[in-house]
Design a protein that fits this description.
CATH topology of the largest domain: Rossmann fold
Oligomer: single chain
Bound molecules: adenosine-5'-diphosphate, magnesium ion
Radius of gyration: 19 Å
Number of domains: 2
CATH superfamily of the largest domain: P-loop containing nucleotide triphosphate hydrolases
Number of helices: 7
Distance between the termini: 35 Å
Largest sheet: 6 strands, mixed
Length: 285
Amino acid sequence: MTVGDTLIAPQASVNPAISIRNVTQRFAPAGGADGVLALDNVSLDIAPGEFVCLLGPSGCGKSTLLNIVGGLFKPSSGEVTVAGRRVDGAPHPDEIAFVFQESTLFPWYTIIENFRIALKFQGAPKSERDDRAMEALQAVGMAGFARHYPSQLSIGMRQRVNLARGICVRTNILLMVEPFAALDEQSRMVLGEDLSILLAKTGKTIVFVTHSLAEAVFLSDRIVVMTARPGRIKTIVNVNEPHPRAPDFMLEPRFGEMRNDLFALLRDEIRQAMALQRDPLKVRA
Ligand SMILES: Nc1ncnc2c1ncn2[C@@H]1O[C@H](COP(=O)(O)OP(=O)(O)O)[C@@H](O)[C@H]1O
Ligand SMILES: [Mg+2]
């Protein structure tokens, strides 16, 4: 456990926020063939308030794992518990919010109307919905755009709003699938800083999928490096640095060292994944 001035970044906990136990996922094609083994016996505990990144080559099962944690579907075997409750193939809107790569705002509603829908779906009292929406928009510097339509915002602004919508439902857990991938590098670093500040303020548990090594090091308490299909945990890298992370962290020699170490770890897996792409049903030994 690392104790910083502003935050405790626990690495294991007696009461994990998320517990993934021996999760295996096989996507079976029609006709009873064996199908694709996407995840193979993955186990991981994530502590409350922890920021965990999933890093691995395309097709290694990152989205599949997050979707299982979010209750979007049941794994072939194994189980996930969230706050001690078993996730049984149904979403937990009180506990978990998703933030996806694409902005998933309804284009024909204004930003605040989009937020009201999310809050209504979650069961938030009507009298609280606008205050909660505005507070979340404020947190990402977008309060002035509540009455705009999504098409009136830049991609970067839409991603900020998307993040705010994930915040306004006030869940303990945020699951984020490459939320900044559509942005240029500078904007994503700035949004990453905001996310680190948010984490330090709210103590949310965040599981984040990214392809960016720098983003993984900058944001994470732990980086889970996965293997090419079938997805297994290859290793876990600890980043002992309190949140909120300062931009200066990126200039430290250990930042560059960690990023290089991650690339060395991933390199074989990326080559493996490229070979698998040429033969979609093949699974390595
Ligand atoms: N619904 C599905 N049906 C069949 N195969 C799937 C399905 N979803 C994912 N897969 C396969 O499972 C593997 C893992 O996919 P995914 O979780 O999307 O990987 P990642 O997010 O790491 O790129 C890939 O080989 C993918 O083709
Ligand atoms: Mg994916």
